[in-house]
Design a protein that fits this description.
alpha/beta, 8 helices, 5 strands, RNaseH_sf, five-stranded mixed sheet, Nucleotidyltransferase, domain 5, nucleic acid binding, DUF4817 domain-containing protein, 40% helix
């Protein structure tokens, strides 16, 4: 059984090599014993991020996916927006949490984590590495993550630094948000309630087989 420090190191190697096989080899040569299996390595990570429907705020979220050349988005400046937070594990998705007409700041971000997200991963808390992007790195957020995932979280100002410009190792970037966006924007959106139902429905179409293929992209 790998220690928390070894698990953290495995995740760092996994990010560096983008390959579970190379990570296993590195573990074997470093610690002179058999590494954990690929599914276990995948399980040690959980990704979280958020997507802004309607107009995408490029300073907050990057959506890496195929653009629909026929999409019609009639949006005025400062039109209503919906923020949605979502988490992704090796075998499941933490279903979306929506914030309408509210700027996501440290206080409500912590509410999302503590009230909504953490209870859903309580059974895996000691086995995963938590990863978030660089958007939320207030001292309060870092303290909560340090308490919940001591030396086992990746992010700006965290024990394992966030690697900027790394969408290829962030499944929410290179898979989920693009997939959801392509479904949500197939037809014009009429109000702020409609994207919530569309996003939820799109996420519910993601099954374990799709998640498995996504993980294989970096294995």
């Amino acid at each position: 059984m790998a220690s928390p420090q070894e698990q953290s190191q495995v995740v760092v190697w996994f990010i560096e090599f983008k390959s579970a096989t190379q990570t296993q080899r590195k573990f074997r040569t470093t610690y002179n014993r058999s590494p954990s299996s690929k599914p276990i390595i995948y399980k040690w990570q959980v990704y979280c991020d958020r997507f802004v429907s309607g107009i995408v705020n490029r300073h907050i979220t990057r959506v890496w996916g195929l653009e629909n050349p026929h999409a019609v988005l009639e949006q005025a400046r400062d039109s209503p927006k919906v923020n949605v937070w979502c988490g992704l594990l090796h075998d499941r998705i933490i279903e979306p949490f929506f914030l309408s007409e509210v700027t996501v700041r440290s206080v409500n971000y912590l509410d999302i984590l503590e009230i909504f997200a953490f209870p859903q991963i309580k059974d895996l808390q000691l086995e995963i590495i938590f990863q978030q992007d660089g958007a939320h790195w207030s001292s309060e957020a870092r303290k909560v993550l340090d308490d919940k995932f001591p030396r086992r979280w990746i992010g700006r100002g965290g024990p394992i630094p966030w690697l900027p410009r790394s969408p290829d190792i962030t499944h929410l970037d290179f898979f989920l948000w693009g997939y959801v966006e392509n479904i949500v924007y197939q037809s014009p959106i009429r109000d702020t309630d409609e994207p919530k139902s569309r996003i939820t429905a799109a996420i519910q179409t993601v099954d374990c087989a799709m998640l498995h293929r996504t993980w294989l992209e970096i294995s």
